Amino acid sequence: MLDLVGNAISGLQEAVNAIPAGHSLLFSITIIIVIAAVFAFISKVLKQELIPAYIIAGIIIGPLVLGLINNIGLINSLAEMGIAFLLFTAGLEISASKIKEQTGPSVFASIFEMVCIAVVTFLIAIALKFQSTEAIFLAIILAFSSTVLVVKLLSDKKELSTVHGRIAIGILLVQDIAAIIVLALMNQSFGIMNIILALLQTGLLILIAIFLNKTVLKPIFKFASSSYELLFLAALAFVFIFAALAYVLGLSIVIGAFVAGLAISNLPYKFEIENKIKPLRDFFTIIFFVSLGMWLTAFNFKAIIIPFLIFLAVIIFLKPLLIAIAVRLSRYKPRTSLGVGFSLGQISEFSLVVAVMAMGANLISNNTFNLVILLAIATMAITPYLGRANTFFFKAYHKFFNIFKKVPEKKELEPYKPERKTILLFGCHRMGTIFLKGLEKYKKKILVVDFNPDVVKAMIKQKISCIYGDAVSSDLLDILPVDQSKVVISTIPKIDENIYMIKYVKGKNKNVFVAVNAEKIHDAIKLYENGADYVIVPAVISGEDTLKRIIEMTKSDFKKFKTRHLKYLKELHNYLY
Fold first, then answer.
1. Which of 372, 377, 383, 380 is nearest to 141 (CA)?
2. Residues in CB range of 546: below 8 A, 6 or more apart
3. Looking at the structure, do residues 470 and 365 belong to the same domain, yes or no?
4. Which of 36, 194, 246, 463 could disulfide-link to 57, CB 3.0 to 4.6 Å?
């Protein structure tokens, strides 16, 4: 039986090697997506997280098991693009002003954790008989946490804009800058001038982003927002421009992508941009996690099992605790501190790059390299489950945090929670303005969704809760308070969009009253058949109302009505503009 399996694998490997070079990339991506999909389905059936499934898929198709992928270098390049798109969306979510609020705690927690973990790791490595050079690299590698994984998990849970999400992103930013400096120095030599140069390069990139934000970005994206495709293309071009700038400056392209996200995070189009970028981001991110498994090669497991278990404990228990302590000392609540800490209990993708470069320069052995890869796989696979157990850790460490009970807690640090939104209004131009004005006394209960940036800008000035975005975007609908809404009104004229919205809203909240707009009578009938509670047909309503007025009102009545109607129209026009 084993011989049959071995022969089958050998035959498959020979078939893969026979594929022409021009088609190898397509075949490699096909294998990655198909195998990842199979393991993802299995993971969903078993009600497990998807990230471990992607990593296992990489191990299976990588050189350790089947060896089906030859062009691993190109796959890793695609994976780096996934990291770039992921950090771009993170930059969109975390505006510069929000990061500024957590700068102090993030810098303190980052430095505190990196120094402590590096020292502990170095001492443990020396005690375990590692060479001093390997001990230094292990200390550097274990000090960093994964920006890719943490941003993905926070994004999936819609926690990027929470306090603990912003602090975590801030910590990762500081770590990424430190990692970039390490990578730059590995290509040169360790020295104060090289460190200063790396910091100046990063600063220059940020200054370019600020300049563009203050000058040309707003008019460019305002013009592009009139078209879904043009907005997507403009955002994509901006990501690649900053990735290229970062590369020219000697920085990682992922830092360029993150800065690009920050630069447009204060524009009213970020929700729609994020929704358009998300499919690309998810595709490349999956390739990243699969490629992580493919990095594992043959090694002596017995030789590294003890170091693996010890360092694993350092990463998933000691590192989060150190970060949580640092955040708590910055006057944040214990739950927030632990939320930050246990989201960062893994090693970084930059750590893997450091390991690869060290391996190529013969600074670490093959066993040590595979130890790092195993730690990356294990910690990235475990992190999603640590997030699930946040309440357990809070209870377990609650008494420990009593040590810091004399440290005062900051007030108003938790995310701002607006009043309960019970009325959702899709589209606020023309007819929507009538509804908004008529419901003025319920202003605090209304949330408006509109794709017109000028309308959104006007509503912001009026202090009306609003979101720029597309009603048929599932990502946008996911963040709306549909489950607590009592009334949903859509003035959107497109029947397909209204049907999609009706089904989504009714699926989330069967008791909500949904009123939608239709331009034609047969569209109204179809909308009723698809679950609408009331369909607004402007032509019919207008005709009925006009006929009633003509029959019942005299000429003198019309003169009085004209005065009132003109005044009302002017009020509507000036309500938002």
1. 372
2. none
3. no
4. 36
Give the helix, strand, coil percentages of the chain, each rounded to 5: 70, 5, 25
Q: Which tokens hold the place of 288? A: 């990243």
Residues 83 and 226 in one domain: yes
Residue 411 in any domain: the answer is no
State pLDDT tens for residues 499-523: 888 888 888 888 899 888 888 878 8
Query: What is the domain-level CATH number for residue 14?
Result: 1.20.1530.20
Among candidate residues 358, 356, 345, 355, the one with its CA nearest the CA of residue 318: 345
User: Is residue 576 predicted with pLDDT exceeding 70?
Assistant: no
**pLDDT tens profile 303-333:** 889 999 999 999 998 999 999 899 888 888 7
Q: Note whether 515 and 536 are within 8 A (CB).
A: yes
What tokens does 342 get?
């246990």
Strands (E), 439-561: 446-450, 466-468, 487-490, 513-517, 534-536
Q: Model confidence over 106-135: pLDDT tens digits? A: 888 999 999 999 999 999 999 998 999 899
Helices (H), 264-361: 270-294, 301-313, 319-329, 334-341, 349-360
Judge whether 425 and 447 are in contact, CB under 8 Å: yes
Bridge partners (DSSP) listed for residue 534: 515
User: Given this model, what pLDDT does residue 397 score?
Assistant: 67
